[in-house]
Structures are given as C-alpha cells and as structure tokens.
Amino acid sequence: MKDKLRVLHLEDDQIHANLAQVLLAEDGIECNVALVATEADFVAALDAGQIDLILADFILSGFNGMIALTMVRERFPDLPFIFLTGAMGEEVAIEAMKHGATDYVLKNRLSRLAPAFRRALRESGERSERKKAEEALRRAEEELRHSNEMFRAIIQASPLAIFLLKEDGTVKLWNPAAERIFGWSEQEVKGRPLPIVPNDKREEFTLTCNWILQGQLVIRKELQRQRKDGVLIDISLHAVPVFDAQGKATSILAMVTLLTTGNST
User: b/e per residue, 24-36, with b = 16+ CB within 10 A?
Assistant: First the structure.
C-alpha cells in the first residue's frame, strides 16, 4: 500500500483545513496532515522533518505565510510550498513565487488544489531525480579523475617505456622511461609523429597500428627501433587498443622493454 503524503498545513481556520483535506481525498490524494497555526508550532514541525509538502495560509494571527516560506527555503530549498489563502493579489502572488513558492490556490477556487498538489509533487520528484543524476555524474567524474591520476602516476613511475598514440600515429603521452630509453623528451614528441620508427620500418609500423586499431593485441613482439642519436635498438613491444565510450578504438597504448642497448646489424 502506498504511503500517504505527509503534509504540513499552516492554517488557523479548522473549517478550511478540513475542507482542503476532504477535497484532496475526493480527488484520490490521501494525506496525513499536521495542522499548525502558530510560528512556534510551525518551527517545531519543520524540526521534526518528514514532510512531503507544505500548505500555508498567507495571513495568520501573529504570523504570516511569507515568513514561513522564507524559513522553509532556508532549510529545505526543494520542498513543495503551496499558498492556500483567501486573498492574494497578483503583485503579492508574483512576489511569493519569486521567493520560492511552488504555487498558490485561492480558497474560493479549491478545484485547483489537487492539480496544484500533483504538479508540485511531480516537479519536486523531477528535481530530486535530476539532483541524483547530477550527483551520480559528479561522483563518476571524481572517480574518473582519481583513476586518471592513478593511471598517470603508474605510467610515470613505470620502468617500461610507455607511450600513447592517437589514430594518426602522433604521440599523446610519453613517460620518463620512454625518454630514458629513446632519448626524446615528452615536449619533443608530444603531438608529433612517433620518432622511434626507422624509415625502412614505416610500412610495417602503419600496418601494425591499423591492426591494433581494429581491436587486436600485440604481445611480446620483437622489433628494431631507433634512439634520438640514431642508434638502432632491439625492443619487445606490448600494445593494446584504447576504446572510447562508444566502443571505438581511438588510440594505442604501447609498452616497451629494452632487449639490447648496443648497435644491431
């Protein structure tokens, strides 16, 4: 069974309070109503919490709805707040909406009360879902940022030469071990074609890159590559495709182990 709505009703006229509850029930909106008439009782009810919606008269003896609205918005920015009042001029209504009222219903037009209830609760639910989605996105972004920082730290500390290539073969990432093994600094290679491929190995390099971007892996492939000083060295290559959110391989992550440091013939 669905729980009844928990309504806090600020009203000093018992007859109007009962009439509002009866009309809501006739329209299929079942409520547990906490009726209060003074500022002290209103504040105590707010302190107790567990409120789904607030109904409030605009003018009461020793208190008024605008003050009540201000109190609510300071503590519960998204809690639906509907004025149910005997009189409210257009200027006052506009001012109330500017201060955060969800809606207003005149007591001589109570047929609007149930639709106003449903709209206020629907909009409140939509705001709540949007906030949950935004919070989930914020957490995901924070986790991704943390993961990226860890990923970056691991790459920076790795004894393996690690570099990341874009689809066009230009360097996106180049770690300190790659600089130590091949001689080029990250500033020298980033955004430029990979410089370690000898001229006579360019065709082989292009074919390998295309193969990896099709989703294949390279495991312990022994190759000949060149250092900045032109010396050819033997390496062992591990390379994998890196996929975007749509599942398309958009870059290549390569890890290199040095096999020899001397000249190759």
Answer: beeeebebebbbb
Candidates 236, 239, 216, 213; CA nearest to 224 is 236
Please write the tens of the pLDDT for every residue from 33-75. 999 999 999 999 999 988 999 999 988 888 889 999 999 999 9
- Sort residue 69 into left (φ over 0), alpha (ψ -120 to 50) or beta: alpha
Residue 251 phi, psi (nearest 5)? -155, 170
Distance (Å, rounded) from C-alpha 69 to C-alpha 65? 6
Quote the CA–CA distance of 88 and 239 in Å, as a whole number.
Answer: 72
What is the CB neighbour count within 10 angstroms for residue 249?
A: 16
Helices and strands in the chain, H and E counts: 8, 12
Q: How far apart are the first and last CA of the chain?
A: 83
Instruction: Tokens for 95, please give them.
Output: 């001012």
235 bridge partner residues? 223, 258
H runs (alpha helix) in the chain: 14-26, 39-48, 65-75, 90-98, 113-157, 176-182, 186-189, 202-213
Rounded Cα–Cα distance for residues 83 and 112 (Å): 12
Q: Which residues of 90-108 are buried (b: 16+ CB within 10 A; e: fewer)?
A: eebbeebeeebbbbbbebe
Q: Is the pTM of this model over 0.90?
A: no
